[in-house]
């Protein structure tokens, strides 16, 4: 009964982190100098299916049903290796000897599409969580009668 709550909660957590990373990308879209010296590089979030927890494994074996999944988790946050954007601005403090400034590889359209996708996924997981919670409450009410 609680597996659907755990699965949707893992999705909520993962999508919230994805939204945080997207927000960071947007905030640094014009950052030409970071602590490491170069321009900011777009960050990407990688998800993976979460392994079964021991209790769920025992329950599935006892009920002789297959695994229905255990949610998702973030495996890593990586830098996007795509090329940086260059702009000719000879007066800029970060311009190279040819007058070009290297800007982050952040595309605002891509970030907005990713943000909409992440927020819709978050909303879907929240709806599943609320529906599961509502079903659990109804089941408890039936058991009380």
Short description:
The chain is 50% helix and 16% strand.
Shape: elongated
Largest sheet: 2 strands, antiparallel
Q: What's the helical proportion of residues?
A: 40-55%
- How far do the termini sit from each other? 20 Å
Strand order of the largest sheet: 1-2
Taken together, the total number of domains comes to 1
Radius of gyration: 22 Å
Keywords for this entry:
single chain, 145 residues, alpha+beta, two-stranded antiparallel sheet, two-stranded antiparallel ribbon, 4 strands, 50% helix
Give an overview in words.
The protein has 145 residues and is an alpha+beta fold. The chain is built from three helices and four strands. It has one domain. The strands form two sheets. A two-stranded antiparallel sheet has the order 1-2. The model has no long low-confidence stretch (mean pLDDT 88).
Topology (elements, then pairings):
Elements: H1 3-27, E1 43-49, H2 54-63, E2 72-79, E3 85-88, E4 100-103, H3 108-144
Antiparallel strand pairs: 1-2, 3-4
Helix pairs in contact: 1-3
């Amino acid at each position: 009964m609680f597996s659907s709550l755990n699965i949707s909660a893992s999705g909520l957590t993962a999508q919230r982190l994805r939204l945080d990373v997207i927000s960071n990308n947007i905030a640094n879209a014009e950052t030409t100098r970071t602590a490491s010296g170069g321009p900011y590089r777009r960050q990407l979030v990688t998800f993976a299916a979460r392994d079964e927890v021991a209790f769920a494994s025992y329950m599935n074996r006892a009920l002789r049903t297959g695994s229905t999944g255990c949610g998702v988790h973030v495996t890593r946050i990586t830098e996007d290796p795509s090329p940086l954007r260059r702009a000719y601005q000879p007066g800029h403090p970060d311009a190279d000897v040819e007058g070009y400034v290297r800007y982050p590889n952040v595309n605002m359209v891509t970030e907005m599409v990713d943000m909409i996708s992440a927020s819709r996924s978050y909303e879907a997981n929240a709806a599943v969580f609320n529906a599961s919670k509502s079903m659990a409450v109804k089941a408890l009410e039936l058991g009380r009668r």
